[in-house]
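note to self: dont lose this again. the chain is below, predicted strucutre after it. 302 aa total, dont forget to put it in the shared folder this time
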Amino acid sequence: MTGILLLAAGAGAGLWLLLVWAAPPHPRLATLVDSLRATTAPPTAITGEDPAGPEPGWATRLGRPFTPLLRAAGLPRPGLVRDLAITGRAVSTHLADQAALALSGLLLPGAVAALAALGGSPPGWVTPAGVGIALAVAGFLLPEMSVRAEAARQRAAFRHALGAYLDLVHILLAGGSGVVGALHDAADIGEGFAFSHIRRALATAQLTRVSPWQALAELGTELDVRELTELATSVSLAGTEGAKVRASLAAKAAALRTRAGAEAEAAAHTATERMAVPTALLAFGFVFLIVYAAMSHATLAL
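---
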């Protein structure tokens, strides 16, 4: 019994650590305001390391030796690389976290079983092995699920910022600016990670002497933002064929705003439906207690 209790406590501690890693506590409002006011440089490359990122945590330091093995196995997949790019997370850091959490989940039940064996109540090897494999798989997949969820939120924010960028470009074109000048000036006005990526792409195009719409198309492909690729196609028509693009940009901005409104409305409906579940469970529990009390009295009466 002691071994089973220790094993259950170790498995619970491992699951709690995974949960804390996946959903860390919310920072204070002052910290968030300071992070917004701080000016940080964007990553030097889409799949590279941050130039001056924070000090790596214990998971990154523990799993860093296993990063070459995961890279040799073909990880991460191309879709996940694009998700990491838009979240600004380095590939090596993500792989190190995956390796560390998988290794921790694999070894934790064995350590608890060893402590139980030292206490005189060995639980056997089947249960620790099964729990360890389950925790290792969960620890390996948890960072990937977290990155995909964060990437979905970042892409929604990017589309929202892209709508504002299109409005700025449209205004500058209406004021007589050229296409290239309007792209650069509109990117310099905005703030946030989306405008930082756009500025970096335009600066790269200027340094490598390629067209800015080609750089924007490559950025849309790397970040998996289809709307940015469509924007690059529309602007390329104006830059190469002289087509009128102001109306097209205005239409795309309106379409982005409509889509953002529809997504917000759908998210609100989904949240409303999720709120009905606890209420239904509470009502079910209330009815169950009433029925149980009535059935208990009826049974005692018989």
